[in-house]
Amino acid sequence: MSGTTARTIDGGRDTADPLVSGILAPVRCYEVQLRLAELGITHLVEVGPAGHLAGLARRTVPDLEARTVAQPDDPPAWSRSTARSGHDLGPPPVTVVRRETDGRTLAPPTGDGSDPPPPAWCRVMTLPVAIAGLGAHLPARVVTNGDLAEVLDTSDEWIRSRTGIRERHYVAADEATSDLAAHAGKAALADAGLGVEDISAIIVATTTPDHTVPGTAPLVAARLGTEVAAFDLNAACSGFLYGLRVGSAMVATGEGPVLVIGAETLSRIVDHNDRSVAVLFGDGAGAAVLVPDAGASMGPFELGADGVEPSMLWTCAGGSRTPVDDAVLEAGTHFLTMRGGDVYRNAVSRMTQAARGVLERAQLGVDDIDLFVGHQANVRILDAVVARLGLDPARSHVTVDRHGNTSAASIPMALTDARDAGRLSPGDTVLLAAFGAGLTWAACVLTWNPTAAAGEGG
Ligand code: UT7
User: Fold this and answer.
1) For the domain with range 129-453, which CATH number is right: 3.40.50.2020, 3.40.228.10, 3.40.50.80, 3.40.47.10?
2) pLDDT for 76
3) Is 348 a pocket residue for ligand 1 (Cβ < 6 Å)?
């Protein structure tokens, strides 16, 4: 590629391939932009019709003339640069960048229904983002199966054998989700060695916000003493992984460190007289600080949702469709209800499917996974997912016995628990998978603390 002579480079793969592969991985656009700027290109012709590289180059290099042509032999119509720059640039230097690499094209979707399914590489994306700190907070009150058996027609034996749960924690009367979230967030920041002034955003994944309005995240931000961007994310039990996806994208595109918190007070929305749900859920919060780290790898992610049958797991009333009134209070439809068997089957199949999806895209086998942290709803669900994946059960971390199902808080609390138990070593490959109301599901892989691993090695 030359900025001084006008010529077509037919065999320019050495130049074209790094640029095109950079375009293929969106997060590397930044590197491609740097490369374009470094090369000092003044004119560029991309063999279209997509024109991704031409468009990126046009946005990157001041006074660059970029054109897209249908065929390599089509003459590009130059017009602007001479007029704009005031210099006679002579014949334009021409760089032909092929728009196909390994048979994969860059054409954008037309949206008219004729588009082929997106190629897998669209979602083969790992971000240079690491978890720099973890924190968790459980409210003080422990509720054992025996405690529940005293007030409900249930037994420790039934709860343990059907769910693996031994105990869960409940908030006190004066505690709310933001209180737990703030504690977990502070702990994660301290663990990362960062102050609140170092973060650029707070995401709180929750289905049990303090209020319908405002969101819980601004309350947490105020508790932490910051005015950075703060917003809630509701993807039920998959919320923390959705939060990781959003937060890591923010970090990778230059926002700076992001605090992602999963926090829940499910004891507030279950009917404590309904044994079919009351024994399952608990309260708690977990948090992770995401930071840019060139050596790190977060992703790929798989996120999905199917809202066709929300009543499988929901609080029917209390939202805009059915506001709370006397009839609601009488019927108790503002409490959480669940068709346990249906949710169970979906949880196993969706978590397995999502986990397989990310492993395939990451080109990893199950034996490459050092630790699996799944959503902690039921130990039988975790065991079934592990069995279907063919994963060594010893690599699955379980906290549901002590925490119950804490929805969006379960994965960050379990990750923190695993780290505290010495189950995470620098460089480990971690698989996360979640499933929840919506229905929603999510999975991702990440490398645990890669910078420390590099430091140890060198
Ligand atoms: O976090 C979001 C995702 N949530 C989940 O993934 C939860 C998914 N579902 C489950 O984990 C399981 O379906 C449950 C733990 C909720 C239920 O286990 P199950 O093996 O599917 O039991 P079941 O619903 O088939 O109920 C079996 C029996 C029923 O009695 P009958 O009809 O057979 O006489 C229930 O009434 O167990 C009864 N039962 C209980 N008995 C004692 C239900 N809850 C209780 C209880 N104690 N707490």
Assistant:
1) 3.40.47.10
2) 62
3) no
Instruction: Give the distance between the most distant pair of CA atoms in the chain.
Output: 90
CB of 344 closer than 6 A to ligand 1?
yes
Closest CA to 178 of 1, 411, 409, 435: 409
Length of the chain: 458
Q: What is the pLDDT of residue 227?
A: 97
Instruction: Count Cβ neighbours within 10 Å for each residue of 205-240 and write b for 16 or more, e otherwise.
Output: bbbbbbeeeebbbbbbbebbebebbbbbbbbbbbbb
pLDDT at 28: 56
pLDDT at 42: 77
Element holding 436 (H helix, E strand): strand 429-436
Tell the residue nearest (CA) to atom 25 of ligand 1.
341
- For residue 99, what are the CA distances in angstroms to 70, 73, 125, 283? 10, 14, 20, 52
Q: Enumerate the active-site residues.
A: 237, 375, 405
pLDDT at res. 362: 87
pLDDT, tens digit, 9 for 90 and up, residues 256-295? 999 999 999 999 999 999 999 999 999 999 999 999 988 8
For residue 343 and ligand 1, the question of a CB distance below 6 A is answered with: yes
> What CA–CA distance (Å, rounded) separates 327 from 229?
39
Among residues 457, 453, 409, which one has the least CA distance to residue 183? Answer: 409
State residue 22's pLDDT score: 59
Alpha helices (H) in 66-192, listed in sequence order: 80-85, 145-151, 156-163, 177-192
**Residue ranges of the chain with pLDDT lower than 70?**
1-34, 37-38, 48-52, 59-60, 62, 72-73, 75-124, 450-458
At 143-173, the pLDDT tens digits run 999 999 999 999 999 999 999 999 999 999 9
Find the 323 Cα to ligand 1 centroid distance in Å: 28
> Domain map of the chain by residue range?
13-105, 129-453
What is the separation, in whole angstroms, between the first and last Cα of the chain?
37
Dihedral-angle region of residue 103 (phi above 0 means left; psi in -120 to 50 means alpha; beta otherwise): left
CA-closest candidate to residue 181, choices 212, 135, 132: 135
SS3 content of the chain, % helix, strand, coil (to 5): 40, 20, 40
Structure tokens at 268: 């507030």
From the CA of 154, give the closest atom in ligand 1: 47
Please count the other Cβ atoms lying within 10 Å of the Cβ belonging to residue 146. 12
